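lol ok so funny story. i was supposed to be doing the assay writeup but got distracted and ended up predicting the structure for this chain instead. priorities right. anyway since i did it might as well share w the group, maybe its usefull for someone
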Amino acid sequence: MAGSLVEGRISLMVNGNPYALILPVSILDTIYSNDDDITRAPYKIFIKLVRVLSLLITVFLPCVFISAINFHNDLIPTNLLLTMSSLKEKVPFPFSIEIIFMILVYEIAQESRLRIPSQLGSVVGLVGSLILGQSAVTANIISPITIIITSVSILTSLTIPDYYISSGFRMIRLFFMVGAMLFGFLGISLVLYSFLLYTFHLKPFKVPLIQPFYIDKNNNVIKRFFGVPLKNLNLKPYFIPQPKQNKKKARTKQPT
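and the output, tada:
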């Protein structure tokens, strides 16, 4: 919070609430963590690229898999397709229903983990997911490939530093999955176009959410992403309005 105040942002704190709101924010703040500023540049660049890749996998892996299975079987290698078909023989549900069911089960386990005391919450979430997944595969309700796709998508969502941002992208993932179920890659493209169109029009506190992708004269976004030392950065992001300073010129008396 102190770093955001130095940058010229606003911090909103409410009595009785342990959290503080920082505004305005940009879309790049979703992959920013507090310990990034004290991490060496090579590892900082690597971990941020991992977060971006994990975010893309979280949103697009289930919907691309559903689209490839339902509409574009020619994109899957023949050996892999035969293996998946052999594993799918005894399972009565299509892949799309299986993935949506497993994701909903995970969301239920995640919500129950938050309501259980902290000492038991993590154990209940982990053990419950393992038991349910193994039991579903043994009972031929869920295929093993569905467990793999769902697990990878869930694990990559945990790399996003902010929990609420992560939950928002998990909700967006459901819309992409529905579009893939209905129209394949065309449905994914339509949902992606609608999502980008909606994102481009978001202006929280009169600052566009995608403002960092606009023209930046000082290249602060590139410098901060690639780990340039803080002394080479301006204190305030370029998309935050700068206060106008009235400079009074000193009057000099001309010698007579």
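The beta strands are 10-13, 20-23. The radius of gyration is 24 Å.
back to the writeup now i swear
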